[in-house]
Amino acid sequence: MHITPEEIVETLLMVQQQNLDVRTVTLGLSLNSCAHEDAAVAAQRVYDRVTTAAANLVPVAQKLEAEYGVPIVNRRISVTPIAQLASVSRHGDITLVADALDRAATEVGVDFVGGYSALVHKGIGEGDRKLIDSIPQALATTQRLCASVNVASTRAGINMDAVLLMAQTVRAAAEATADRDCIGCAKLVVFANMVEDNPFMAGAVHGTGEPDEVINVGISGPGVVRAVIASLPDDADLTAIAEAIKATAFKITRVGELVAREAARRLGVQMGIVDLSLAPTPAEGDSVADIIEAMGVGRCGGPGTTAALALLNDAVKKGGAMGSSSVGGLSGAFIPVSEDQGMIRAAESGALTLEKLEAMTSVCSVGLDMIAIPGDTTVETIAGVIADECAIGVVNSKTTAVRLIPAIGRKVGDRLSFGGLLGEAPVMSVNAWAGTTFAHRGGRVPAPLQSLRN
Amino acid sequence: MQTPAILSVLGEDRVGIVATVSRVLADSSANIEDIRQTIISGIFSMTMLVTVNEDETPFDEVQRRLAGAAEELGLQITLQREDVFRYMHRI
After folding, report:
1. Res. A442: pLDDT tops 80
2. In the prediction, which pLDDT does A186 show?
């Protein structure tokens, strides 16, 4: 036997005690063939396309899960940015497409469908505006639909008109779902440098450079990394910690690679990428904050946090890149506050602030994620937070994102509860000095110089 | 279709484990290629490399029968395709 009993037990413990899982198998689908000038016809085509192409996704994922003994937590679909369809559908209400996607997702049994999206980093087209205007209602009337809008890129700069529009849209999405803990905003993300092959929500879209159908897989496993660090001697130095994380990331990624290959083969579609992101879950111990604390930082958010996170993020990429034939997506440690028990603890104890989270996003994936803010936060403040986060992404040539949840009628110290993977968000305080002028200036923050980088 | 798989048994040692598991495998036309047993961190661990003959008994049916044996023995029995271990632990 080539595999030793120790290796077998290690694998079993990773799954059973340390929450190793594949976070998502995401089927990317092009909807270009569904475009029609009548939105109702486009919606019917979308429904037919999704229910046909994704009919076997859930059964195949369930079979892989059983045969390999590794949980696949979510099955998802990403589609062509719907703004492209909206630009063709001159007649009718584009939310018909939102409804069709949601019904199709329910029919095939997937957890989320992403791609109610627009890319407006350089300008807002008619279809883009139609889609963005419809987002609050679309998210309020669907269960599984996710929306995302790209407002900035390193090559184009930051579209500040789009930033303000999205701040207003975030606010409107919160108000439209105020009776359900503002859950609409948990399914809405504003991007800088959006990627085309991201399997994670809420930002998954099926980009224009992709084939008609593709399988992308997102791995998970913060609990495994934390357990490995905890098993090292107390005096292990950071070089040893980085090496241990690399070795573990390799193993986690290999599982994702195997699942991606097999899922693609059985579904008869191309394998796309494995996304190396360490995605936490609300389960105790499955936490990126716990990894930072296992490295020795007193509480996540305290001094040392950004350095520890940078080490973690880099080591995961180094180990993971070796483990997969095709790496892509967002690929980095996620720090969604509501989905990570350690982050929630840190935020509620005052150790973790919005400003520290912003600093952390400069060294990891992906941005200010799943953060509840007071319900009376102004649109100008939300726009300022989005612009700041975009600046980090644009200047550093990386993806950043903002998924803020204005907690309508709530204040600092309250909690929003979304259930499932989306978890619970403590309402965090926001710096109140945004002013009222900057957000309304509009125009574009020009693309940054790509040399003289200091 | 012949599918290589790893069968692992974890739990407290007791009489009849090998006999029970082997009987289930034989009844399912699954061949035992190798067998090892050891104590790891105080846990009794038996691992088998088996080949599941899916033409005779589908993989999920073998898993179902083993789940019955696990209940009978009060142990944890897992049957997983072998390539998951090969992928994780070998370059």
Report:
1. yes
2. 98
Q: How far is it, in rounded angstroms, from Cα B5 to Cα B82? A: 4
Q: How far is B80 from chain A (nearest CA, A)?
A: 5
- CB contact, 8 Å: A432 with chain B? no
Determine, for residues B40 and A9 on separate chains, whether the beta-carbon distance falls below 8 Å: yes
Print burial letters for A91-124: b (CB count within 10 Å at least 16), e (below 16).
Answer: ebbbbbbbbbbbbbbeebebbbbbbbbbbbbbeb
Chain B residues with CB-CB distance to A11 below 8 A: 84-85, 88-89
DSSP state of B16: T
Q: Give me the total of CB pairs closer than 8 Å, taking one residue from chain A and one from chain B.
A: 71
CB atoms closer than 10 angstroms to residue B35: 15
Residues 6+ positions from A350 with CB-CB distance below 8 Å: none
**Contact state of B47 with A8 under an 8 Å Cβ cutoff:** yes
Residues from chain B contacting residue A6 (CB–CB below 8 Å): 40
Residues in chain A: 454
Q: Which residues of B touch A69 (CB under 8 A)?
A: 78-80, 84
Question: Model pTM?
Answer: 0.94
The H or E element spanning position A173 is: helix A160-176
Question: B49: which chain A residues are within 8 Å (Cβ-Cβ)?
Answer: 1, 3
Which among A426, A434, A399, A428 has a CA at the least distance from the CA of A121?
A399
Percent of chain A whose pLDDT exceeds 70: 100
Do the chains contact at A1 and B49, CB–CB below 8 Å? Answer: yes
Other C-beta atoms lying within 10 Å of the C-beta of residue A162 = 29
Shortest CA distance to A152 belongs to which of A398, A355, A403?
A: A398
Q: Is the predicted pLDDT of residue B42 greater than 80, yes or no?
A: no
Residue A285: the pLDDT is 83
**DSSP codes joined into one string, A18-58:** S---EEEEEEEE--GGG--SBHHHHHHHHHHHHHHHTTTHH
Q: Is the pLDDT of residue A5 over 90?
A: no
Question: What does the pLDDT average to over A150-170?
Answer: 98
Instruction: Please provide the average confidence, as pLDDT, over all residues in chain B.
Output: 92
Contact A160, A441 (CB under 8 A): yes
d(CA A400, CA A197): 15
CB contact under 8 A, A255 and B80: no
Among A172-181, A196-205, A281-290, B62-71, the range scoring the smallest mean pLDDT is: A281-290
ipTM entry: 0.88
The SS3 of residue A94 is coil
B60/A6 CB distance under 8 A: no
Look at residue A200 in the predicted model and tell me its pLDDT.
94
For chain B, give percent helix, strand, coil, nearest 5.
Answer: 35, 40, 25
A-chain residues within 8 Å CB-CB of B10? 9, 12
Report the chain B residue with the minimal C-alpha distance to residue A63: B60
What's the rounded mean pLDDT across residues A113-135?
Answer: 98
Cβ distance A171 to A406 under 8 Å? yes
Residues B70 and A205: their CA atoms lie apart, in Å, by 43
